[in-house]
């Protein structure tokens, strides 16, 4: 691939930071949009041109000038009902504004990072790109915002923009500084703070396969198409058992009935929040965890050549990164 001038949003986050590293290793020039309040830890020491701004800024097209390719990775993630307006503003209006700016700036091709969250869950089966849950059935405002943001990408395609959509499942691996909800589960396991587990399931993929999938989508993806970037469907119990094998720590033995965290979350978000107290368990998160969130990545494997690094290796690298970056107290 020819060396490109690339604009990246979300570069300080988990997927974005791994993508920036891959782009630099391939010899591309990277310009990164960073918010004024962003934690820049993930960009430290990297040869990246940083421009400060927000997705809703009026002057984004000027910031994009001179770049040929846009990777729109940024998204606001929250499962709290109180963040509904911010989710809409960042994910939907921000995406609409950025894609308009890309059109004005003459960006040749955009890879938009959606999520399997926008697709929804297919009961009793693995969803692929042809499946779409009705938007009203998507659990929580985050998933709904990602659905509507993806519709903005489709509208822009209809207006003539060259956009490829990728839908990562659940990435795991290094540079998960925040961490993500799955990274947090790994951390709680390592800190021995997980006595019970819920009967839920995820599609896991190494974050480095996800970012390579972004480059493959840029190179081989079809305009207007979406590609699930995923690998292995696993129950949470199976994931915890692998972590136990890798670390020598004991996996939680007991399954907790869903009604217990659901009740806690309802009290948290509906009762305590109304009293001005900060809730600790998002209701949408528990409702989502009642489902088996399984996906079929065959299209991306066949059409893009998406790699399938063993999930066991990805979990090991996530553990190693958390330990080496002092997320886990030394015993």
Automatic annotation (TrEMBL):
<dbReference type="InterPro" id="IPR001509">
    <property type="entry name" value="Epimerase_deHydtase"/>
</dbReference>
<feature type="domain" description="NAD-dependent epimerase/dehydratase">
    <location>
        <begin position="6"/>
        <end position="230"/>
    </location>
</feature>
<dbReference type="GO" id="GO:0004029">
    <property type="term" value="F:aldehyde dehydrogenase (NAD+) activity"/>
</dbReference>
<dbReference type="Pfam" id="PF01370">
    <property type="entry name" value="Epimerase"/>
</dbReference>
<dbReference type="GO" id="GO:0005737">
    <property type="term" value="C:cytoplasm"/>
</dbReference>
<dbReference type="InterPro" id="IPR051783">
    <property type="entry name" value="NAD(P)-dependent_oxidoreduct"/>
</dbReference>
<dbReference type="InterPro" id="IPR017829">
    <property type="entry name" value="Hopanoid-assoc_sugar_epimerase"/>
</dbReference>
<protein>
    <submittedName>
        <fullName>NAD-dependent epimerase/dehydratase</fullName>
    </submittedName>
</protein>
<dbReference type="InterPro" id="IPR036291">
    <property type="entry name" value="NAD(P)-bd_dom_sf"/>
</dbReference>
């Amino acid at each position: 691939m020819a060396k490109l001038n690339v604009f990246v949003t979300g570069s300080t986050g988990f997927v974005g930071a791994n993508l920036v590293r891959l782009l630099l290793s391939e010899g591309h020039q990277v310009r990164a949009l960073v918010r004024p309040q962003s934690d820049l830890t993930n960009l430290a020491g990297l040869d990246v041109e940083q421009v400060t701004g927000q997705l809703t800024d009026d002057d984004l097209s000027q910031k994009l000038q001179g770049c040929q390719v846009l990777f729109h990775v940024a998204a606001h993630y929250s499962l709290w009902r109180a963040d509904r307006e911010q989710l809409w503003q960042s994910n939907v209006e921000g995406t609409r504004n950025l894609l308009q700016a890309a059109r004005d700036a003459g960006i040749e091709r955009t890879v938009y990072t959606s999520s399997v969250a926008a697709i929804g869950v297919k009961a009793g089966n693995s969803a692929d790109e042809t499946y779409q849950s009705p938007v009203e059935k998507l659990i929580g405002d985050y998933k709904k915002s990602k659905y509507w943001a993806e519709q903005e990408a489709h509208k822009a395609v209809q207006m003539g923009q060259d956009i490829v959509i990728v839908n990562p499942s659940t990435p795991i691996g290094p540079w998960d500084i925040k961490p993500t909800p799955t990274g947090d589960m790994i951390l709680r396991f390592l800190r021995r703070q997980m006595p019970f587990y819920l009967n839920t399931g995820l599609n896991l993929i190494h974050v480095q396969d996800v970012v390579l999938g972004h480059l493959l989508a840029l190179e081989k993806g079809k305009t207007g198409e979406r590609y699930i970037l995923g690998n292995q469907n696993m129950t949470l119990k199976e994931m915890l058992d692998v972590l136990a094998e890798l670390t020598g720590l004991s996996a939680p033995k007991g399954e907790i009935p869903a009604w217990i965290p659901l009740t806690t979350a309802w009290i948290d978000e509906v009762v305590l929040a109304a009293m001005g107290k900060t809730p600790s368990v998002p209701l949408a998160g528990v409702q989502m965890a009642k489902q088996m969130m399984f996906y079929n990545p065959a299209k991306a494997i066949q059409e893009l050549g998406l790699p399938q690094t063993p999930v066991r290796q990805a979990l090991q690298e996530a553990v190693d990164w958390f330990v080496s970056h002092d997320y886990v107290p030394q015993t």
